[in-house]
C-alpha cells in the first residue's frame, strides 16, 4: 500500500505527506489526531484481508476489521 495523503492535528507538511511515506509500505504510523488515506491493489487474490492498529487496547475498541475482496 501507499500513503497518499495525511491530515489532522499533527500534519506537519503543507502537501499532506512526509518523505518517509514514499514507496510501498505494510505499516503507516499515525500520531494522535492524525489520519492517512491509503491506496493499494488486491491483484490475484479474493478473500479477506485484516487491517488493525498495533495498539492492543485500540484493537479491542474496534480499530481492527476485515476487508473482503470479491
From TrEMBL:
UniProt keyword annotations, A-Z: Metal-binding
GO molecular function list: copper ion binding; oxidoreductase activity
Tagged with keyword Metal-binding: yes
The Plastocyanin-like domain, residue ranges: 5-67
Lineage top rank: taxon: Bacteria
InterPro entries, alphabetized: Cu-oxidase_C, Cu_oxidase_Cu_BS, Cupredoxin
Pfam families: Cu-oxidase_2
Region (Disordered): 1-24
Protein's UniProt keywords contain Metal-binding: yes
Name of this chain's protein: Plastocyanin-like domain-containing protein
Organism: Sinosporangium siamense
Lineage per the UniProt record: Bacteria, Bacillati, Actinomycetota, Actinomycetes, Streptosporangiales
